[in-house]
Amino acid sequence: MSKAATFLKSQVGRKIATGVTGIGLVLFIIVHLLGNLAYFAGPEAINTYSYTLHQMGPILWVVRLGLLAFFVYHVWLGISIWLEKRRARPEGYSVYASRGGASRQNWSSRSMVVTGILLLIFVFTHLYTFAFHDFATAIHDGVEMHDVHQRLTEVFQNPVYTIYYVVIMVLLGMHLRHGVWSAFQSLGWMSRKSNPIIYSIAFVLAVIIALGFIGLPISIYFGLV
Amino acid sequence: MTIHLKIWRQKDRNTPGKLVDYTMDDVNPDMSFLEMLDWLNERLMNEGKEPIEFDHDCREGICGSCNLVLNGMAHGPHEATAVCQLHMRKYKDGDTIVVEPWRAKAFPMIKDLVVDRSAFDRIMTAGGYISINTGAPADANALPINKYDADLAFDYAACIGCGACVAACPNSSASLFTGAKISQLAHLPQGNPERKRRVVNMVDKMAEEGFGDCSNFAECEAVCPAEISITAIAEMRREYFNALSEIE
């Protein structure tokens, strides 16, 4: 077996890989969130943003395939670590409780596999709703482009999809609350001093990202933009 | 004081175990938890019944022999306390305590509350040593070690190898134990000759013994009687990454 394969199969390597792919996905999410905010600047801003992305051609495909690889690998690692956990303790405790204190066991860390799987399902539905949609066209400055603004407005006027989206973004926040901190610990970027600081930063980042994503559908649904 | 106990009884590895109820109505609050079990065992033996098997040795929190999960928490509810140092005054009259052994595939059942923790010994054998001949104790200042490293090495060396980290971990991971052993030696010059091989071998051995993956729950740090920080796990990961050249 090659060095890389041995490394990636080891328990430490698997955590490092989960952390690296996780950080990659968080960076994508931040860029995605910033892109979403273009909606607030009006139809021309978000449609041109989308158009510019599509004009990137091969680069866009490299990014897309890279993202897909990171995503699939991250999901696979998460599920296999979860399966391993069941194998490592065939007979569970009659009573189990967290000691609290230094423990990071909470609603966020305990539900990583559940929130992760729901996010995976969401990504499929989200791509179906937006990426694979047959967009109407809009013309800005004489250039014909997808009318993303119109599609977003239409989708988020539907209460069911809006609620679904908001709930999933809360779950995303939960996933990142443990995930961001955990990535730093997994990559060994942690000391006794920085541990609580990074844990707090992860919380703030998770809240900002979740609220950032929730802002758009709520604003559209209630006609605030 | 009266204490209701639900204690895991299991004849051997191949016989299914169950929780058995015992009520102790003459518990002295100054007894340690293990003394209460001694008391209970004495009673059982006087009644001609099989006593409850549990591991213990020093009873002063430094040997790492005792291993009980009380109401779902390894070593019981108090931080930085091995269960031998837990006293009954911490409980209230009439409390019910569920007593279970460490549960992990890598710690197979022997009897009742006793499990086989020799997997830890095998992780140590894989790399938790230094091979240089240290000879007679050297002069304390002959080999200068800065305060920062000396303190960290000492903190990690406090690990008594009890296995509470594994017992409390939702994934049954041995990362805190292994991390502490690796990081302790990584901060000392004596640990340098085998530094890279050590981390690779010990991490491999940990997985081979059937311990689970770490999910950074940090429950291990919360239950550790020696208060070892999960920074040891972060250090183990850095060490592993730096030892890439040694990976086969």
The strands making up the biggest β-sheet of chain A line up spatially as 1-2
Query: What gyration radius of chain B follows from the Cα positions, in whole Å?
Result: 20 Å
The run of helices and strands of chain B is: EEHEEEEEHHHHHHH
Overall mean confidence score, pLDDT of chain B: 96
At the third CATH level, what is the topology name of the largest domain in chain B? Fumarate Reductase Iron-sulfur Protein, Chain B, domain 2
What is the alpha-carbon Rg of chain A in Å?
20 Å
CATH level-4 homologous superfamily of the largest domain in chain B: Alpha-helical ferredoxin
> The biggest beta sheet of chain A, please?
2 strands, antiparallel
CATH class designation of the largest domain in chain B: Mainly Alpha
Description:
- The complex is a heterodimer of chains A (225) and B (248).
- Chain A is mainly alpha-helical.
- Chain A has one domain.
- In chain A, 73% of the residues lie in helices and 4% in strands.
- Chain A contains nine helices and two strands, in the order ααααααββααα.
- In chain A, strands 1-2 form a two-stranded antiparallel sheet.
- The longest helix of chain A is centred in the N-terminal third of the chain and has 31 residues, at 58-88.
- Chain A is globular, with a radius of gyration of 20 Å.
- By secondary structure, chain B is an alpha+beta fold.
- Chain B has two domains: 3-100, Ubiquitin-like (UB roll) (Roll), CATH 3.10.20.30; 118-246, Orthogonal Bundle (Fumarate Reductase Iron-sulfur Protein, Chain B, domain 2).
- Chain B is built from eight helices and seven strands, in the order E-E-H-E-E-E-E-E-H-H-H-H-H-H-H.
- Chain B has helices at residues 33-46, 118-127, 147-157, 164-168, 175-186, 195-208, 219-223, 231-242; strands at residues 3-9, 18-24, 69-70, 73-74, 96-100, 109-111, 114-115.
- A five-stranded mixed sheet of chain B has the order 2-1-5-3-4.
- In chain B, helix 2 (118-127) runs antiparallel to helix 6 (195-208), helix 5 (175-186) runs antiparallel to helix 6 and helix 5 packs across helix 8 (231-242).
- The termini of chain B are far apart.
- The mean pLDDT of chain B is 96.
- Chains A and B meet through helix 1, helix 2, helix 4 and helix 8 of A and strand 4, helix 6, helix 7 and helix 8 of B.
